[in-house]
């Protein structure tokens, strides 16, 4: 058949954002906005961004920073690592912990804002190569953190949105196992974030990169990532 070849990889993710959103993320990186207390509080409440803005955002930020994602690593360490300790009590208590505020980027674009994006910022932000390199560095181990509801496989791990849905529906869940998994995920993200410090350079590997990708997917859902890279690491 002479159909067009399907676009895959980071090229899918960098197209999820408008020009204005790319420009916003350039400002977010340049001003180290993740360190601003008000911004950090907002992102804690929303568990980051919606799935499209989270995955499009990490791909664009990877392009803008040539793959240097220390700020995002610190953010996801902050979002994910405390969760295991907060998951106590029954289902209602879990639902209170896991419920998120709306995505701070959705609906925030000003009219005509995309015209202000410099072409060099757009060119760098829409470069998919750094995101592809990040995923390749995980050596396919991100699959251990994929959501079985997002990919339809029945794999037992769940992202936060699907875990919330399962709790609300009264599905049978291994809450102790989920809590232990969140502890392991949080430790992996912590090691990934710590690996940007000079004294820890070279001490992180595929497991830590996979945990970083897993943390993004757990917070927001995996659908855009799976559309880009497939449900099986062998599809990359």
Task: Please provide a written account of the structure.
The protein is an all-alpha fold and 236 residues long. Helices cover 56% and strands 0% of the residues. The chain has one domain. The protein contains 13 helices and no strands. The longest helix has 20 residues, at 175-194. It is globular and about 50 Å long.
Key structural traits:
236 residues, mainly alpha, 13 helices, 0% strand
Quick synopsis:
The protein has 236 residues and is mainly α.
Write the layout of secondary structure elements.
Layout: H1 10-14, H2 19-30, H3 37-46, H4 51-64, H5 70-80, H6 83-86, H7 91-98, H8 119-125, H9 129-137, H10 160-169, H11 175-194, H12 206-220, H13 223-229
Structural class: mainly alpha
The end-to-end span amounts to 22 Å
**Domains, number:** 1
| Secondary structure tally: strands | 0
Helix content: 55-70%
Mean pLDDT: 91
Number of helices: 13
Point out poorly predicted stretches.
Answer: none
């Amino acid at each position: 058949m002479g159909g067009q070849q399907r676009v895959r990889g980071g090229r899918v993710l960098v197209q999820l954002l408008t020009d204005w959103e790319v420009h916003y993320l350039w400002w977010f990186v340049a001003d180290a906005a993740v360190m601003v207390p008000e911004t950090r509080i907002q992102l804690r409440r929303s568990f980051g961004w919606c799935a499209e803005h989270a995955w499009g955002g990490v791909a664009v930020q990877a392009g803008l920073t040539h793959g240097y994602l220390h700020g995002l690593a610190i953010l996801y360490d902050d979002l994910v690592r405390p969760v295991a300790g907060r998951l106590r009590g029954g289902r209602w208590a879990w639902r209170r912990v896991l419920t998120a505020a709306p995505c701070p980027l959705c609906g925030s674009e000003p009219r005509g804002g995309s015209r202000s994006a410099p072409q060099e910022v757009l060119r760098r932000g829409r470069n998919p190569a750094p995101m592809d390199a990040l995923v390749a560095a995980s050596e396919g181990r991100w699959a251990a953190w994929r959501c079985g509801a997002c990919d339809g496989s029945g794999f037992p791990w769940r992202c936060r949105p699907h875990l919330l849905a399962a709790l609300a529906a009264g599905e049978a869940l291994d809450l102790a196992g989920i809590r232990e998994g969140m502890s392991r995920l949080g430790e992996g993200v912590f090691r990934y974030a710590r690996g940007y410090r000079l004294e820890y350079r070279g001490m992180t590997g595929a497991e830590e990169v996979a945990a970083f990708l897993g943390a993004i997917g757990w917070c927001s859902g995996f659908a855009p990532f799976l559309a880009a890279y497939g449900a099986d690491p062998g599809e990359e």
